[in-house]
Amino acid sequence: MAHRSGALVLFLAGAAFAQTAVKSALDKPTLEAYLRHLNMWNPQVAVEISDPKPSKLDGFLDVRVRASLGARSIETDYMVTKDGRKIVQANVYEIDKSPFQEDVAKLKLDGAPSQGKPNSLLTVAVFSDFQCTYCQALAKTLRENLLKTYPDKVQLVFKDMPLDSLHPWARTAAAAGRCVYQSSAEKFWVYHDWIFDKQGEITAENLKAKVVEWAGQNGIDGLRLGACMEQPETLALVEKSAAEGRALRVGSTPTMFINGRRVPGSVPWPDLKNLLDLELAHAEACCSIELSPAKPAAGTKGSQ
């Protein structure tokens, strides 16, 4: 009897070991449970895990994990060994390419409102939301300082990224901006400054009326602009820009890309200038980042 009891204990111990041994980070529930514990994500945090994809490094698979709580989200890339036993969180760089090459390849600047000199040593692309107060602050900082400080060495590019869950009129305001830009590239920046300045006065209910009134005061056909704001083609342009932001894992606005370097938030000018100076010195000493210069959309005049 004792012999049988001992055998049973060994069998149960072996079964428990087998259950432990089959744990794999390639199993989504297993990986989610591990990351929830690691990052202290409570049950209210939604977790999405991508299917594994081939990695740049031999012996690994790439897995992207998105954690979100309400309108806030973060995406993180992990590398998992092919046996599922180990997880690595790291950046992989190729020494002969920009460390920001992956994001540079995803930045599409053609057809976006821009100021400054195309093919500049510095390219500052900003994903922004007209209803966002932090975007308002950064816009003021950039407009007052950027071109004045680097008149022949920078291009500023505006990208729409309305956060609908937080800002009910941001997408419509972005559509209006697209229509102004199609009418006049120069007047887009007048609209840009005006709508940020009037942010506190605008609501979802009065936005269109205020935009049409502004258009009449600035030599733009208000009726035509009002109709353009509601066109599916206009809304599709806004969504295309927002989709590019999501592909770049932009989780909040404003988010800048300075020669491909991700810089989130509204950065005070002294700190931003230090960063721009470093990027400029690198570009002058080494090599410029090959970002496609922003070109005016069809039917617009080039910006100054």
Describe the structure in your own words.
The chain has 304 residues and is of the alpha+beta class. The chain has helices spanning 2-21, 28-39, 101-106, 133-149, 170-183, 185-197, 207-217, 222-229, 232-247, 269-285, and strands at residues 46-49, 53-54, 60-69, 72-81, 87-88, 114-116, 122-128, 154-160, 255-258, 261-264. Strands 1, 2, 3, 4 and 5 form a five-stranded antiparallel β-sheet that branches. It has a five-stranded mixed β-sheet with strand order 6-8-7-9-10. α5 (170-183) runs antiparallel to α6, α5 (170-183) runs parallel beside α7 and α5 (170-183) packs across α9 (232-247). The longest helix is centred in the first third of the chain and has 20 residues, at 2-21. The mean pLDDT is 88.
Brief summary:
The chain has ten helices and ten strands. With 304 residues, it is an alpha+beta fold.
Show the helix and strand layout:
Elements lengths: L1 H20 L6 H12 L6 E4 L3 E2 L5 E10 L2 E10 L5 E2 L12 H6 L7 E3 L5 E7 L4 H17 L4 E7 L9 H14 L1 H13 L9 H11 L4 H8 L2 H16 L7 E4 L2 E4 L4 H17 L19
Parallel strand pairs: 7-8
Antiparallel strand pairs: 1-3, 2-3, 3-4, 4-5, 6-8, 7-9, 9-10
Helix pairs in contact: 5-6, 5-7, 5-8, 5-9, 7-8
